[in-house]
Structure formats: structure tokens, C-alpha cells
Fold this protein.
Amino acid sequence: MTPALLIVDGNEAMIAALKSLAVNYAILKSCDHPVDIWIRDWGPVARHYFRYNPSYARGTFTQADVARARRHLNRHLRFTPRDVPLVLEGGNLVHNGQVAIATEKVFADNPQFSRGEIERLILSIGFERVAFIPVEPADE
């Protein structure tokens, strides 16, 4: 069974809560080489991987680090995520399966693409619509 939730090892209270709720989860350990505790940012979103190169962490993680972490993460999944050539951390994209909402940060992080191209790339994942919202001023 594919885990409903992936967590980075080390939070015993969270693990106890997941067990009490009967949530199916998998734990990434240090040997899995996670690049960040926020798996949602560098992991798959709607079965797709975006290029993980967030402005807040440029120079912190090499593309080789991200590739290695994703190879280890893929061992816990029952699908192989497809790549999307947009720089977009998963935390900046939420969806309900039909409508995707992304922050306007995606435009600054992908100057090589037009707004229309970015919209088409996000829609190509299988969403019916995409909406762009302003970046929260205090959010790094």
C-alpha cells in the first residue's frame, strides 16, 4: 500500500499521533538523504516533480542532492513521478485534483517561461484550471 504520508524520522509525538489515527505512513531516515524536512516542497505533487531550486535555499542543495533524495523517496511510492521543468516548491502549489492554486513566486522563479507557458505546464499535470495568488509578504 502506498503511504498516505511521508515523514522525516525524529518526531516521536507525530508518529504516535499517526498510529493512533491509523494513518498509513512511511518514515524517511537519514540514509534516505532527505534534502529538507518539508517533503512536500521537494517531493511529488500530483504525481509530478517540479525542479526544486527555491530562492530561499539556493546554494544549499545541489541538483545531485535532490536527485539522490528523490531516488530514495521513490522507493516508498507505487508510481514514478514525471518531471515538470518549472522551478516550484510543492508548498507553493495546492490543489483539489481539478483546480491548482500557485503563488505568483512561480513567475519570478521561471523567467525563461511566459505566464501562459507556466499556466500550460501546470495544467499539463491534469488540472482543469490554475489560479495564481500573490506571495504573502512575510513569507520567506
Notes: The longest strand covers residues 82-87.
